[in-house]
Amino acid sequence: MNALEFTAIRKSFADLLAVDDLSFQVRDGEVFGFLGGNGAGKTTSLRMVLDIIRPDKGEISIFGRPPDRKRSGEIGFLPEERGLYRTMKVLDTIVYYGQLKGMSAADARAEGRALLERFGLAAFERTRIDKLSKGMAQKVQLATAVVNKPRLLILDEPFSGLDPLNQGLLEDEIRRARDGGATVIFSTHVMQHAERLCDRLLLLAKGRKRFEGTQDEARALLPARLSVITRADAATLPGVQSADAGAPLADDEGDGWREWEVKLAPGVDPGDVLERCVAAGVPLRRFEQRRASLHDAFVHIVGPSFIDPAGKPIPNKPSQGEAA
Ligand SMILES: Nc1ncnc2c1ncn2[C@@H]1O[C@H](COP(=O)(O)OP(=O)(O)OP(=O)(O)O)[C@@H](O)[C@H]1O
């Protein structure tokens, strides 16, 4: 059974179509990345999973059943607009949320302490939320989302506002949840996190799905790039679309050995090219495929403007309640 399924979901706000005929599936136990630039429809989609807002059309299924706020114990959610009760103390906050999700106070306290230890916040368990830094409060909010080990964890822009050390800590926590059997969905503007964590990805642009699949499937959409050292003119090799020659190699004694940056024609398999070169006796010292970045793959799919280059979320929503 899939952890989450969207079938032909549509959601408008007045005359703005925020999510347009969106269908995708998240498999049970995978880490799934929700990618797209500002206003792509990520948060709107995640809020529909949580039943905070409802779709105009289409169907959502979570472990085979429709969204329902009463299922909050099954789903851990870190919203994009962070917010905790400012005057509550750190451990009390985690225990409060644990109990809301059906845990006993003792279990929530024990798990809360373990989380604070892992998050480097053990010394702050009695500190009021409003005395914490923004990043610290964010970690406490993450703790409230994971305290009961939900089977589905939904994190909206979880990395924003965290320094690199804490971003690493969050990556570890996502892997830990996955290793414990949870399905994790997170949205991000920043490719590197997705690259390190995601089994599969969804790329949204202007509310529409532009790609769904694995990282390798995304990369396979790009023409292959190679680094080749040869004495031949690399532009004449089979399947090559373009080839840029570097300077002659330092140890070259007039034989014409050069390093070339080669781009194959779309759909051409580097393995086939290598076989044909060997069969034809092309002199080769190196024939190496360059691994494309996810960023390159997505620029290829949606164009250069698909993502905010600084990776900074633009605050475009009202905050809820007493935000920390
Ligand atoms: N409650 C709302 N009322 C009106 N418009 C909304 C509302 N929520 C979202 N929108 C609009 O819907 C579109 C999609 O927004 P959404 O927040 O889902 O995008 P996002 O991909 O999460 O973007 P970001 O990365 O900037 O958070 C945007 O144009 C946004 O302004």
TrEMBL record:
Keyword Nucleotide-binding included in the entry's annotation: yes
UniProt cross-references to SMART domains, sorted A to Z: AAA
Domain ABC transporter: start-end pairs: 4-231
Similarity comment: Belongs to the ABC transporter superfamily.
Native organism: Nitrospirillum amazonense
Keywords: ATP-binding, Nodulation, Nucleotide-binding, Transport
GO function terms (MF aspect): ATP binding; ATP hydrolysis activity
Protein name as catalogued: ABC-2 type transport system ATP-binding protein
